[in-house]
Structures
1.
Amino acid sequence: MRTIRPIGPIRPPEWLMQGAAEVGEVSLALVRSGVWRSAGPAQLVRIERALRTWGQSMAALGVIAAIRWPDRAAVISGDSQLTYAELDRRCERIAAGMHAQYDIVAGSKVAVLCRNHIGFLEATLAASRIGADVLFVNTEFAAPQLEAVLERHRPDLLVHDEEFTPPAGVTAILSTSGGSGVATLDELADSRAVGAAAPSTAGHITILTSGTTGAPKAAPRVPTAVGLAGLTASALSRFGVRSGEPVIIGPPLFHGLGLLTSMLALFLGAPLVLRPKFDAATLLADVEKTRAGAVVAVPVMLRRLLELGPTAIAEYDLRSLRAVISGASQLGVPLAERFIERFGPVLCDAYGSSEVGIATIANSADLLDAPGTVGRPCLGSSIRILDEQDQVVPTGTTGRIFAGGGLVFGGYSDGSSKTVVDGRMSTGDLGHLDSAGRLFVDGREDDMIVSGGENVYPVEVEGCLAAHPAVAEAVVAGVPDDDFGQRLVAYVVLREPATEDELIAHVKANLARYKTPRQIVILDEFPRNATGKVLRSKLSPP
């Protein structure tokens, strides 16, 4: 006769209860979002087993979502759609196929070279189930860059879209059916191979930094449950997203912003709406069709949405939209104000990097009350502004930004790291805090321009130019000058005609004389990387 033991009170996992001051806000946000609703005793037993098996890995997120919401849509990619149960079954079979056919085991390295579609998630979650390390490869790499990255990291297996040609000697499979005789994820999902044993530790996730100031570096991490819980609670309370509401991911999933928000969606049981390439009108159509509650985008995507014009925007039913989450590059005050005016108070800004994850979040109220802010720290994170002697500077004083929390990485794959002080890592940015604890980014440490003995932060001048009604976007850089050491050159993209003299006069009227560019270069568009960041190295005065 079986003994039935009573189940005690249902409570969050112990890792979520760390930090008593934050427990109330975390718990309230999770309850309000619907994440903790309708989890019965049988589900809780299976969830506990999944956590024991896969720990704090992406695999655990996928498995638990399938336990909680098996019949709910997990991924909507164009006309294709999978439920959480279907996604979990396919990932289980793909993981078994990777192990049986390619000898992928815990500690192996699987590279993923895919655009935003179901195959990206399947490859990532399947490799994570085995305990393999996953390397995300930038889909914008030219052939020599791709070859160099794969030579440096030497993956045991590459999963790629058919449009990309892997270098010779790399073991590869296709993310979708290609009909070229090469194995595909679909074939692995249909196999009946025997899976690998459950991993003893979670594999690393490696993101390549953007490389806007040099060659990209690999930033490996194992996302901690504490860090993800803090980000989740902050996102729920400040973004207003809800469990089960579709989330449209615009930035590439191989980038930190796209990856973290996709993990957040898995945790929430929120269907991921993906497209291989961004198109502004298609995104609005997807919001209407899926009744999406959130959109994740980079600032250049927000500009493209505004460029559709009020008449075109009004054609779409966007009433379901709770949040438009911007990140990956500077939002800028004029763009934020224009977007909120057109779409309503749904805009949020997330500040962070590949190395520190998402450190702060600003909602629309922050963006309107304190123009230029990137918000307050996420739960479980902290911000310090330090001087050159690593001392905290007074409120309102510019210094080096240091961030700490559960999403900070442990160092680059080459053994180097960023500066760490008292457990907080340098973001590489300069900034200040206001009296309300809101963070403002004043520029990059390596972007500061010294002209005639005066320190100039490009962000301030860029913001001034962007405030001119004719300017869509501005970038300011320093170039060598025999008299002043450096002189300021501004590069602008216009939304309506304006002359160089008009723009220079605008800066003179609003900023100190030494902050006025000596030259303004008008461009049709800026060179950008895959995440929308301007490639300053490709800008040069005529």
2.
Amino acid sequence: MTNPEKPPAPTRARLAALIRRGDPPGWRMALLAAGAGALGAAGQAPLGLWPLALGGLAGLVWLVSRAPGPGRAAWLAWVGGGGHFAAALFWIVEPFFVDPLRHGWMAPLALPALALGLALFWALAGWLAGRLATGAGSRALGFATALAAAELARGHVLTGFPWAQPGHIWLDTGVMQLAAVVGASGLTAGTLWLAALPALAWSRGAVWRAGAAALGLAVVALGWAWGAARAPAPMPEGTPVVRLIQPNVPQHLKWHPDLMQRWFDRQMDFTAAAPVAGAARPDLVIWPETAIHWLLDDAWPALAAIAAAADGAQVALGAQRAERAGSGGVVRYFNSLALIDPAGAVTQVYDKHHLVPFGEYIPFSEWLMGTPLGGLAGRSLLGFSPGPGPVVWDLGALGRVAPQICYETVFPRHLHLSPRPDWVLQVTNDAWFGAISGPYQHLAQARFRAVEFGLPVVRVANTGVSAVIDARGGLVAALALNTEGWADVALPGPLPATIFARRGETPLAALLIVVLVLLLRNRLRRRH
């Protein structure tokens, strides 16, 4: 006998009907949304499984489009976003295990806090779609559009964090080249509109379904074909040679007093190494972020030794420096990139201006506690101070370069510069990001910047991946993750300024606003 107070478990057909209606039991719907969001992260580096990612995003749009109201739509979008960011950004726990006795207890809190915090942008998009649109099809279009707008905003709000965008799933495909026209954010919008096609077509009948399938395939095929034709076209050839120095210093040992000289000597050896037989010596030697353990102003003997090892080449190296604010003022610390001439003199200094929240400073600590506090990467209790902003260095025969430090490269807005640089130099220390996905995702975003702006990117990372990236995002040369070594690489030339370099994200923002306004207008018409 069955218990009359306990209904039998729903069959697969019954559950499918509940999903179509949009009102299954809450926990089942939450699991489906979280799973769809997590599957949407399968296209992020290093996996690059874009068909699975597109399917996961389509599933999430389907679920949100059939939610019975704005509140349920926001809830499902929030859970789906949480699943997406938890799967894509699980590497965020790595920095807390560099010093586990002090910070390890925060690791279990960091991932859910970050994932669910970023997912609030997705929740807002779900709520907005529920308010603006009527019917499952228009809600699917509304959610895809609102989510594209939310992802665009995510790159700006509270200093921004445009990591793991849906548009990044097109890395290493022909579609990636469309970033030269619409940027990574535009690829995100296109990806989400593709993901909305199944839900939109399903609500309109068999003819619409066939048409939507054909349209989706045609869009991907045309974008892929255009990119495939663009990528192998002849590239400008450069003549200067840059040397990438990758010391591969583990983060938990980087500042160990008994080992710091070893790390310095390793970089010196790579700097002084003779070129491959028949090759010329490099014109520029590049050390990674925070490559020396002295403050820059106290490092003159070391800088002279570095210049001697470089044997006539300029050297760009990451270092920390201190500066006293006014007479008798407090000392401020900067995460900097310094250019050293062949005599060992510092000729140019760039101070990182876009700092990592909780890594290089604690947000709002100055307001809450009366003094700024350092984050996980700050060697001073006061953390780092931001520099004045992006700059362009004129390096003569090496051209004009835009120096960037660490994750500044994930923000396209920092490369809208005048005069236009000839290439981008990124120094970073990806030892903080672990060895599974974080460094590869960071590299992927540098490649998107190259495509967006038609500029080569030279990337030098402590533990890797150090690489020279051409102006179409291709890897000219790379040093593998978690290996030590150096590489001499001819600097690729730039392409003419792309459409995205000239227009930026403004056309996309305008288009998203227009679509959302049209959806609102349609809803108001139906009311009357």
